[in-house]
Amino acid sequence: LDERHPSDICLLPDVDDLDSGYLFVAQEFDHQVVSVYRWDPAGGLALQGWLDQGFPPDHGPNLLFLDRVGRRYYLGAASYHWGWGALLTARDTELFPSCERGALDVSALRPAAQQSMFPYPVPIGTTQTKLVRDRSDRWYLLGYRGDPPDDTGSTDYVDVYGVTFEPFS
């Protein structure tokens, strides 16, 4: 991947339950972008494209979430170093212009019209985040961290944050 190590990853399955998908990789250190790789069992990983939303040059995104609401996909790329996140979105038919393996159009993900930048509440040391929705359609951001950080014997925590950005608030 030409990066010291990915900071966070998330997987988006391919259309029609194909045995393939797309790996979104937060490259915090060397490139300060989100790289997107297509994956299938025969071909392995292949670069599909990357997203560079003018992230600060000192720290790229280190946390990602990806979800779908109705007919729109939403990708959040954030960093606890910045204290904010960038929200990108694409309509399903734009992100997947055809129903075939490898058809994802990375360039379809653009800043969300409602609120493309949002406050990101997770503390330093959070290593993964996930957007979740409860039975009453309320959204929350879960943040995984260990205390002390970077210690394999540390105590693990999942912090729960209310979401204050559209369309999830």
Low-pLDDT stretches are none
Question: Average pLDDT value?
Answer: 86
N to C succession of SSEs: EEEEEEEHEEEEE
Radius of gyration, CA atoms, in whole angstroms: 16 Å
Number of strands: 12
Task: Give the helix level as a range of percent.
Answer: under 10%
* Global outline: globular
| Measured distance between first and last alpha carbons | 34 Å
Count the DSSP helices: 1
Descriptive account of the structure:
With about 170 residues, the chain is mostly beta strands. Helices cover about 0% and strands about 50% of the residues. It is built from one helix and twelve strands, in the order βββββββαβββββ. Strands 5, 6, 7, 8 and 9 form a five-stranded antiparallel sheet that branches. A four-stranded antiparallel sheet has the order 1-2-3-4, with no helix packed on it. β10 (about 125-135) and β11 form a beta hairpin. The longest helix has 4 residues, at about 90-95. It is globular and about 45 Å long. About 30% of the residues are buried.
Short summary of the structure?
With 169 residues, the chain is mainly β. The chain contains one helix and twelve strands; from the N terminus they run βββββββαβββββ.
Identify the notable features of this structure and list them briefly.
single chain; 169 residues; mainly beta; 5-stranded antiparallel β-sheet
Question: Layout of helices and strands, plus pairs?
Answer:
Layout: E1 8-13, E2 21-27, E3 33-40, E4 44-51, E5 63-69, E6 72-79, E7 84-91, H1 92-95, E8 110-111, E9 117-119, E10 126-133, E11 139-147, E12 155-162
Antiparallel strand pairs: 1-2, 2-3, 3-4, 5-6, 6-7, 7-8, 7-9, 10-11, 11-12
